[in-house]
Amino acid sequence: MKNRVLLVSGGSRGIGAATARLAAEAGWSVCISYHRQEAQARAVVEEIESIGGRALALKADVGREADVLDLFEQLDQAFGTLSGLVNNAGILEPQMRVEGMQAARLARVFNVNVLGSFLCAREAVRRMSTRHGGQGGAIVNLSSMAARLGSPNEYVDYAAAKGAIDSFTIGLSKEVAAEGIRVNAVRPGLIHTDIHASGGEPGRIERLKGSVPMGRGGRAEEVARAILWLLSDEASYTTGSFIDVSGGR
Ligand code: NAP
Fold first, then answer.
1. Distance separating alpha carbons of residues 249 and 245, to the nearest angstrom
2. DSSP state string for 130-188
3. How far apart are CA 154 and CA 169, in angstroms?
């Protein structure tokens, strides 16, 4: 992967940060985007630079088109030709039943998780597709086991947004398969990151780990390994595919 350029959206924390670290170790030049946690994003960049890697942190709300356009332009100028995108930025809102969900909440959840992934993929395709003079590349979308399980009483909105990511992955993979771009997704299960606290229950994995056949939550690095494989040339004939990283859940 020497000198290939990767963008990881939401790379300041959790699964995105773990992906950025592993990608840098594999030789990618890594741009991470973040929303608010600048200090955490800078820390990831410093960590990568300390092992001799090349990294850059850029602020962008993926749900805002102007921010996404700006993000990709800055990335073009700093690192040049893009070869990989990990559509990782995602959010949860506090747990509740569907009947209590306000339109503003639904708009936020679909905006970041779905619109954000579409906008970033669109910009990546414009740069990577051989149809536009690009050299090809790989996109990995972060879905969730929630897309299959539905997350009743917690966040059906989030689960439905991830269901949209599954359809998006299938459709886009077919659209750009003959243009040098592979599009795949991972579906993490219960992974130890800050996201569960965002939903109002930091101890959620402890409560639910009995429902995981392997009996434990996963680590961000365990998801990152699957993402790295899908980005790599080892996955050269794999597109429109999903890897469940969920301990069998
Ligand atoms: P996390 O620890 O909460 O980190 C979220 C990341 O997304 C942060 O880097 C955050 O940036 C960024 N972000 C949030 N809103 C954004 C926005 N509007 N624009 C740009 N970036 C934004 O989450 P995680 O658990 O690592 O989750 C990563 C992905 O995996 C998400 O798509 C999530 O849905 C999916 N996933 C996670 C789990 C799990 O159990 N953890 C399970 C299934 C799927 P700041 O740091 O600046 O806020």
1. 9
2. GGGT---EEEEEE--THHHH--TTT-HHHHHHHHHHHHHHHHHHHHHGGGTEEEEEEEE
3. 24
* pLDDT tens for each residue of 127-181: 999 999 999 999 999 999 999 999 999 999 999 999 999 999 999 999 999 999 9
- Which domain covers residue 200, as residue numbers? 5-245
- Going from the Cα of 85 to the center of ligand 1, the distance in angstroms, rounded, reads 15
Q: How far is the CA of 135 from the centre of ligand 1 (A)?
A: 29
Q: Total domain count for the chain? A: 1
Q: Domain with 66 in it: what CATH number? A: 3.40.50.720
Structure tokens at 175: 């659209």
Q: Are 162 and 147 in contact (CB under 8 A)?
A: yes
Residues in contact with ligand 1 (CB, 6 Å cut-off)? 9-10, 12-16, 33-37, 40, 61-63, 88-91, 112, 142, 144, 188, 190-191, 193-195, 198
> Ligand 1, residues 38, 91, 157: which to mutate, most atoms within 8 A of Cβ?
91
Report which of 135, 139, 36 is spatially closest to residue 87, judged by C-alpha positions: 139
Known catalytic membership, residue 158: yes
Q: DSSP 3-state assignment of 84?
A: strand
